[in-house]
């Protein structure tokens, strides 16, 4: 059965496309060693996916080399150092997004479908050439947004563009960097507010987590099983399970289901800290 | 002759919109009408000028040309709204160029459900520049129009679904939105007469934020910028219309 292509896009930059692609890809590969996963970094000129995975020193060839015929596809694929069933096709650092066309991407993806079960495409920000290159062969799309009006507006634009494509592309919503305390105090949009505007199915909610910054700098995705204390890491693992068809309830990031003693303990702890 | 189009059983359109200058338009008009004067005298004509701006001088020259040639001009069609007053003062009937095409910007698909050849708003007398058509715009899911999409339409619109922030709607008639209305709406586009503009309305189940409404030559915008949740606000139908020179927001239910 040929592989499925999932696009990670947002419109707005900095909402967590690359972080989500890296963490979800790692979680998918870790969950089942029989599933071969490939990531494609489509941010030509501003590549980052290799840094988030800690693979920047292992890149010899890149996506542009492949489409221009300078190397074979297998030569450009970088195997992950932790998971043998995970590979990265990095972007070029010294070229720009006009170096690739949508037709070339379709041809490349067709070749990769024979080798991998899941192909995750990290789209660049914006709705120009890079976006259209990324959408060219996508089967499904995960729209990533934060709970902010500007990010939601851009996500809405992107969903509209995807809905207008002649080929049907299923869209899923991933809300990133949600802060429960700000939502409770009405300083941040809630999940319901975002879904009311965007009107697509919710795939998951990732809470704000400082450990993301540490993991990005170290090149060790949070969703790796070794780091189970992270809320964001667990949320990414849950998203990966949902993508494989497993029903996983949303994490209780608002603490409403916590035991009353746990709640009181947390309250007392915060009083001691600031008292 | 491909520059002539049959508008109806009684009118013929002379399309001058492809000419860039006023002089070229007049030369073309003269050459067309000097041949077969008997034919033109019996034919009701519509002259179409696209976005050409008519100032006093141009309107006067056109009036003289028509009076001297005996042409029977039924209507002048131009999308230059500022020209309408000048042309009306010279005794011409004016209309915008019919645009029955629903246009979508940037590929954000807007789905046309149905287009009806009558007004659907029985209490509204259609202004004389407006053909009285009504189009129904539908939704893919609950969102009828997403950010970046736009519609320009000569007629009324009924939108089934939400109109998200970042949309643009421009129409010559009135609009009803069975959903939340955000973005920029310009109803009654091209209407300059005060009595006619007061017949135009913008209705929605919920007037959202941000929202810019223009009706005829009047404009207004919503004042509240909400940062948090507005999902808990009550939903009740609202209407915006021009009353005594400004746009009022009228709640149908209190």
Please, could you describe this protein's structure?
The complex is a heterodimer of chains A (275) and B (254). With 275 residues, chain A is α/β, with parallel strands linked by helices. Chain A has a single domain, classed as Rossmann fold (3-Layer(aba) Sandwich), CATH 3.40.50.300. Chain A contains twelve helices and eight strands. Chain A has an eight-stranded mixed beta sheet, sandwiched between helices. In chain A, a hairpin with a 6-residue loop joins strand 3 and strand 4. Chain A is globular and about 55 Å long. The mean pLDDT of chain A is 90. Chain B has 254 residues and is α/β, with parallel strands linked by helices. Chain B folds into two domains: 4-95, Alpha-Beta Plaits, CATH 3.30.70; 111-251, Pectate Lyase C-like. In chain B, 18% of the residues lie in helices and 37% in strands. Chain B has helices at residues 22-34, 37-42, 56-69, 81-89, 194-197, and strands spanning 4-6, 11-15, 44-48, 72-77, 94-95, 111-116, 134-138, 143-145, 150-153, 156-160, 162-163, 168-171, 175-187, 201-215, 218-221, 238-243, 246-251. The longest helix of chain B is centred in the N-terminal third of the chain and has 14 residues, at 56-69. At the A-B interface, helix 7 and helix 9 of A face loops of B.
Major β-sheet strand ordering of chain A: 3-4-2-5-1-6-7-8
- By DSSP (H or I, 4+ residues per run), the number of helices of chain A equals 12
- Strand coverage percent of chain B: 35-45%
CATH superfamily of chain A: P-loop containing nucleotide triphosphate hydrolases
Q: What's the total number of strands of chain B?
A: 17
Described by its quaternary structure, the protein is heterodimer
Overall geometry of chain B comes to elongated
CATH class of the largest domain in chain B equals: Mainly Beta
Number of domains of chain B: 2
Shape of chain A: globular
CATH topology of chain A: Rossmann fold
What's the order of the H and E elements of chain B?
EEHHEHEHEEEEEEEEEHEEEE
CATH topology of the largest domain in chain B: Pectate Lyase C-like
How are helices and strands ordered from N to C of chain A? EHEHHHEEHEHEHEHHEHHH
Number of helices of chain B: 5
Strand content of chain A: 15-25%
The SS-based structural class of chain B is alpha/beta
Helix fraction of chain B by DSSP (H/I, runs of at least 4): 10-25%
Q: Largest sheet of chain B at a glance?
A: 10 strands, mixed
Straight-line distance between termini of chain B: 59 Å
């Amino acid at each position: 059965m040929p592989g499925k292509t999932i696009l990670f896009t947002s419109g707005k930059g900095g909402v967590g496309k690359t972080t989500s692609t890296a963490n979800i890809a790692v979680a998918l590969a870790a969950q089942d060693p029989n599933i071969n996963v490939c990531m494609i970094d489509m941010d030509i000129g501003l590549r980052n996916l290799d840094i988030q995975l800690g693979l920047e020193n292992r890149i010899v060839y890149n996506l542009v080399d492949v489409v221009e015929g300078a190397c074979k596809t297998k030569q450009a694929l970088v195997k992950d150092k932790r998971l043998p069933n995970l590979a990265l096709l990095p972007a070029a650092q010294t070229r720009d997004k006009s170096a690739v066309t949508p037709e070339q991407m379709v041809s490349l993806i067709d070749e990769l479908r024979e080798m991998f079960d899941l192909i995750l495409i990290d789209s660049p920000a914006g709705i120009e050439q890079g976006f259209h290159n990324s959408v060219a062969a996508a089967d499904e799309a995960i729209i990533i947004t934060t709970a902010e009006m500007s990010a939601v507006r851009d996500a809405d634009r992107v969903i509209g563009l995807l809905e207008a494509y002649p080929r049907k592309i299923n869209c899923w919503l991933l809300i990133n960097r949600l802060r429960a305390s700000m939502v409770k105090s009405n300083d941040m949009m809630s999940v319901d507010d975002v879904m009311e505007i965007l009107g697509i199915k919710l795939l998951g909610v990732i809470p704000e987590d400082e450990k993301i910054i540490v993991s990005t700098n170290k090149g060790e995705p949070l969703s790796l099983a070794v780091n189970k204390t992270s809320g964001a890491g667990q949320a990414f693992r849950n998203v990966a399970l949902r993508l494989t068809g497993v029903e996983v309830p949303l994490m209780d990031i608002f603490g409403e289901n916590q035991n009353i003693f746990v709640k009181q303990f947390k309250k007392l702890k915060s009083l001691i800290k600031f008292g | 002759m491909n520059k002539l189009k049959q508008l109806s059983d009684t009118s013929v359109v002379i399309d001058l919109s492809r000419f860039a200058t006023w002089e070229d338009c007049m030369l073309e008009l003269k050459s067309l009408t000097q041949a077969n004067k008997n034919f033109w005298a019996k034919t009701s004509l519509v002259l179409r000028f696209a976005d050409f701006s008519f100032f006093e001088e141009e309107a006067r020259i056109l009036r003289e040309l028509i009076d001297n040639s005996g042409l029977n001009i039924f209507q002048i069609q131009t999308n230059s709204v500022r020209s309408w007053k000048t042309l009306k003062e010279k005794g011409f009937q004016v209309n915008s160029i019919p645009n029955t095409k629903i246009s979508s910007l940037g590929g954000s698909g807007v789905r046309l459900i149905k287009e009806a050849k009558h007004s659907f708003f029985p209490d509204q007398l259609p202004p004389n520049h407006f053909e009285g058509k009504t189009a129904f715009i539908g939704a893919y899911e609950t969102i009828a129009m997403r950010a970046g999409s736009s519609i320009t339409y000569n007629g009324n619109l009924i939108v089934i679904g939400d109109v998200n922030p970042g949309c643009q709607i421009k129409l010559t008639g009135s609009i009803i939105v069975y959903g939340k209305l955000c973005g920029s709406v310009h109803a009654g586009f091209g209407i300059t007469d005060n009595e006619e503009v007061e017949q135009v309305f913008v209705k929605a189940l919920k007037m959202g934020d941000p929202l810019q409404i223009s009706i005829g030559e009047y404009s207004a915008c919503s004042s509240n910028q909400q940062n948090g949740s507005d999902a808990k606000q009550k939903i009740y139908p609202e209407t915006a219309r021009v009353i005594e020179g400004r746009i009022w927001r009228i709640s149908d239910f209190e």
